[in-house]
Amino acid sequence: RSTTDKSHCTALVALVNRQTHRDQPFRMASHGHSHSHGGGGGSHGHDCSKETVDSFETESLFGCIDVERVRCLNEEDEGSVKDIFKPHERRLDKTKFVQSDVDEQLIIYIPFTGSVKVASIVIVGDGDTCPKNVDIWVDRNDIDFDSAEDIKPAQRLELQPDPRAELEYHLSPLKFSSVSSITLFVSENFGDDQTRIYHIGLRGQFLKVRRELGELVYELAPNPKDHKVEGSSYGATQNIF
To answer: E strands, 13-154, where?
Structure first.
């Protein structure tokens, strides 16, 4: 075989070996610094901390999240889900949070401003209200509480309580390598009637797209809706968000 073929095989084997440890959280080290720009000293919109995961450099994806289009089903206070997306240095601020309403379940739709590679996720919760089981879909804006039971997620996570944002969960590089949105389904917590999340942090890479050789670059713009759509089922493509 050629040297290129052998290199590809070696990379594939290494990738499969790493995948066996994906669902195990690892404790986060300090992620460097963040900074502000502009005369008013306001936040730049993202932290500039960097980290190497699986041989590629990652950074906070906070600045890549289209926060105004983030949506949540079954949140107690409408729009509160937007408050849990914040810069890394504010990850322990618990003055704002999203809390479920009629039961412990939540569905959170997270769109990005472009195509991104998502490497890992942090979900800050505490005690019995902390999420326990979380399903994640890629590029699905049609997930509701009915279809979530039928449509297989890209990845399923079993969380541990993490009040200090110390646990980071790796996501599959094969399934999260180029996405425009992800949808989270919190199906269960640690025993409370309501689920509460203080922060969701994502790390990865923003994939810069070049307009070359007549390449068409476009932006997906799903129609946002804040309510559950009755009658949706597996195989349907009805937009929820």
So the answer is: 26-27, 50-53, 56-60, 71-73, 98-99, 106-124, 131-138
